[in-house]
UniProtKB/TrEMBL annotation:
It comes from Ectocarpus siliculosus (Brown alga). Residues 18-242 form the DNA-directed RNA polymerase RpoA/D/Rpb3-type domain. One of its GO terms (cellular component) is RNA polymerase II, core complex. This is DNA-directed RNA polymerase RpoA/D/Rpb3-type domain-containing protein. It comes from the Eukaryota. NCBIfam families: PRK00783.1.
């Protein structure tokens, strides 16, 4: 029986915006509790107050404020802000908040454009947000179908579009919070878990197979879940996680190979 007080974590994949790990020596209650904490109880910074000075775009002030709140903000390691309700200030200050300013007009952004694009709308993006604290900044993402080499990361997340003669000017205050209070403070887009697959090979039936049949069993699997020891000829599970692939189960159900699995 697993020791619930001593779970173990093994990192499988770690990137700037993605992490995958194996949680063992515990049960689903701990896994689900960890998932819920990651979603709703990890403090982050998000835009909370917005003052609109000028907005002649087609986007209403309320929608604009909502979009600004959902733009992810990243802070340098070690940067600590206090919760606004724990701070001694009356409204907000440098200890608990950071101020972003945005001032974009079509006239300024359209300068230097080719002649055939002179009347086209311009984009207002997260890259146009100027932070009062250089340690806190808006996160910019490239489209998911393009690599970093295809598009500059400085392009920013599109907030709105401005037509000729339009302008957007505002001040936004970012504060510290958790997603239990509002979803804009959630640090993750998705946090899920799945059970580790259990695959057992029937050794008695495996012993009845010829070397050619064993080789066929290993090679026919489209996900390459299984491997075969060259010396002993024994079939073993090489890529356990790949068995979740839909085509693997379909192949096994339609052929005699399913008898090898318990």
């Amino acid at each position: 029986m697993p020791n619930l007080r001593a779970p173990q974590v093994e990192i499988v994949d770690l990137r700037e915006d993605f992490v995958e790990f194996v949680l063992s020596n515990t049960d689903t209650s701990v896994a689900n509790a960890l998932r819920r904490v990651m979603i709703a109880e990890v403090p982050t910074m998000a835009i909370d107050l917005v003052t609109i000075h000028d907005n002649s775009s087609v986007l209403q002030d309320e929608f604009l404020s909502h979009r600004l709140g959902l733009i992810p903000l990243a802070a340098d390691p070690g940067v600590q802000y206090e919760y606004n309700y724990d701070c001694d200030c009356e409204d907000y200050c440098d200890k608990c908040s950071a101020v972003f300013t945005l001032d974009v007009s079509w006239d300024k952004k359209a300068l230097g454009r080719p002649e055939h694009m002179q009347d086209q709308p311009v984009h207002v993006t997260s890259a146009d947000l100027v932070s009062s604290d250089p340690r806190l900044r808006a996160v910019h993402f490239a489209p998911s179908d393009q690599t970093n080499s295809d598009i500059s990361q400085d392009a920013g997340i599109i907030i709105a579009k401005l037509a000729k003669g339009q302008r957007m000017q505002l001040t936004a205050v970012a504060k510290k919070g958790i997603a239990k209070e509002h979803a804009k403070w959630s640090p993750v887009a998705v946090a899920t878990y799945k059970f580790e697959p259990v695959i057992e090979i029937n050794e008695e039936k495996e012993a009845l197979l010829t070397p050619e049949q064993k080789a066929e069993f290993v090679e026919i699997c489209p996900a390459k879940v299984y491997g075969r020891d060259e010396k002993s000829g024994t079939i073993f599970v090489e890529h356990r996680d790949m068995c979740m692939w839909r085509r693997t189960g379909r192949y096994l159900r339609r052929r005699w190979w399913s008898r090898l699995l318990r």
